[in-house]
Each structure stands twice: as structure tokens, then as C-alpha cells.
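Q: A reviewer asked whether we had any structural model of the full assembly, not just the individual parts. We don't, so I'm hoping you can provide one. Inputs are below.
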Amino acid sequence: MRPIGTKNQLKAMSKDTITSGPKATTTDEFIKGLWRENPVFVQVLGMCPVLAVSNTAENALAMGLATAFVLLMSNILVSLLRDFIPKQVRIASYILIIATFVTVTDYAIQAISVELYKSLGAFISLIVVNCLILSRAEAFASKNSVGKSILDALGMGVGFTFALFCLGAVREILGNGSIFEWALFPEGFQNWIVMILPAGGFFTLAGWLLIINVIQTRKVKS
Amino acid sequence: MNTESLGSIFLNAALVNNFVLAYFLGICPFLGVSGAVKTASKMGVAVMFVMVISSMCAFGIHAFLASINAPYLQLISYIVVIASTVQLVEMFIKKMSPALFRSLGIFLPLITTNCAILGVALFQTNKGYGFIESVVYALGAGAGFTLALLLIAGLREQLNFADVPQISKGTALTLFIAGILSLCFMGFAGLGAQ
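A: Here is a predicted structure for the entire assembly that you could use as a starting point for your response.
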């Protein structure tokens, strides 16, 4: 049985769980975030935005990109400052760095599209407390060079966006009968209203985790 | 100004718009600390306490930032206040009850990254609540969080004895239960006097 939730985060925070050996190549730092250490499906990090704004594919994509941007910028800065931040106050410093970039993103989205800003609501501000970003700062950026941290952030960011999109697409297709607001089904398709509701978020994520579990067990067997 | 009565604010935050099951805030501790009812209840009380304190501080900060015309500092100052409150609670519990301190362990400092707390601070600002309303709102949100945590911990304790398929063990099963609970809480929607 896999450890779940916060236990997982602790593991991810205390040490870089899988690829920390000297063998890890540069491309590996990027690839690992996509599948093997996917932040949502494997590490179960940063669940709040994943469930809350994945009700349409568009929202999910926007949220994923915003998070990836904050992750990238904070990873770069943390990595640059890693020799200057005293160990005792490092978590507080990381949170301050993250909060700064989130504020930037918040205002940027407001300037680009008011409509998008309204539909994402307070969840843009809540990127600050996304455990994924803090755990990458603590587990990776504070120990590695800037180049590697950028690759790591890009990989994790893309992996996170991909996972959000998987959820958002399923929920929009089933709950609204459309993808990116294009109708998919002929007249008379009964929308699964439950998928748009909060409960649908839980069910969809549980479904994806089941599918991934099946794939993993098959791999182990063969 | 908001004209909701205090009772309806409380019920709204605790049941109708439950922070965990309707807003998806605080999912991490919800999945992580919900293994046993005993730890879950203590965690709930600790979170509620931090929520009320940080909600009071957030009200003051918001008024101050509005007076010096610097709303862009809002997020940064909120998170600093929350982090320091958590630190305070940690020292307090360590001093008063070392046993409780040990049983909560590492989950205590992690309250800082509990989005429900920052959520309360942000939502009360958005809704334009006054001081008393903010405190009631934070109390309601905390009660709702504790309620959801207790419910799911009880269910998971029972499920330890159930024979479920191997692939659905762990997070997937917890999420399914959470989904069903979320459906149940939708029944409270009629209470919301909008």
C-alpha cells in the first residue's frame, strides 16, 4: 500500500525520493516530473487547486500554467539564494519568495483576462500554499544548481498541468458534453451534472488513481 | 456591508459551503491525518484555533493595508501572520501538553500550508465581513473542517476491516468516500438562505 497524503509530502520534503543519485542525467530531471514522479498522480501533492478548478478544461489549463510559472520562478530564485538563506528560517523565506511571485501572477491574470480571473477566483492566491511548490523548493532547488532547478521546475510544472488537464477534460466532457466549450455530443446527451459539482472532482481523481494503480500493478507483474 | 445574520454565516461556513467538501480547501491534512478519529479531532481543534487567530489578524491587516493603500502586500502579510500563529500554537502545545505535541508530530508545522486557513482570511476580505462576522466565519469554517475530518476518519477506521480490491486501497478509496460525503453535504444546500 502506498503511503498517502501528508505522509507522502513529508517524504518528498525531507528528501528527493527517487532520482537523487549521481546517475541522474539532465534530461532525467525533466522527464521524471512528467510521469514517474508526477506531482498529482504519484506524489499526491497540491490537491486543493487540482480538485477545485478542474471543472472545465480551460480553467484547468490556466491554473496549471499559472502554477508552473510560480514554480519555475521560485525554483530559480531559491536555487540562486541557496547559499545565503540561513537554515533555520528557510521555510519562511521560501514562502515569502513564493508569495511574491503569486502576487505577480495574480495581478498579471487580472490584467490579461478578467473573465478567467473571475472563474479561478481566490484559487490563484491560494497557489501560495500549494505544497508542490514548497516541496520542490525544499527538496530540490535548495540543493541543486540553477540549471537543474529550472529543468526540475519545468518537468514538474508540465506534469502538474498535464494532470490538471486530464481531470478537467474528463469533467468537462462528461459534465458539460463539451471540450474547450465545443459541443461534442449530439442533441439529447444527458449531462452528468455530478461531474461539474465538487463530488465529481473527488470521483474523477479517484478514477484516475485507480487506472494508474492498475497500470503499475501490471508493470510489476510482468 | 453584509446583512447576513451571524447564525447563517456560521451555518454557511460549516455545512452549506463546507471548506473541505465544497471548496476543496485543506485537502492535504484531510487525506493525511484522517487515519484515526483521535488524532483527527485534535488536529481539527488546532486548525480551528489557528483559523480564528489568523482571521482576527487578517481583519486588522486588511484595514491597515487599505489605509496605507497597499493592497498588493495583502497575500504576503497574511501568510506571514499564519506562519507565526502556527509557530505560536506549536510552542504553546509543546509547553502545555508534550504528549499531544508528540502525537500530532510533524502535522503541526504543516498547518501553515493548510489552504483552508489562508482561504478563510481571503474569503472574509472578499465578502467584506466586519470583525465579529469574521470571527464567526472562521469558527464556522473550523467547525466544518473538524466535522469533515471526523466523519472521514470514522469511515476509514471502519474500512480497515473491509475487504476491498487491492488496486483501490489507499488514496483512491479515500477519495471515493470523500466524493460520497461531498454528495451528502449537498443535501444541506437548502439551508443556505441566499
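A: Points you may want to mention in the reply: Chain A touches chain B through 47 residues (CB under 8 Å). Chain A has one domain: 25-221.
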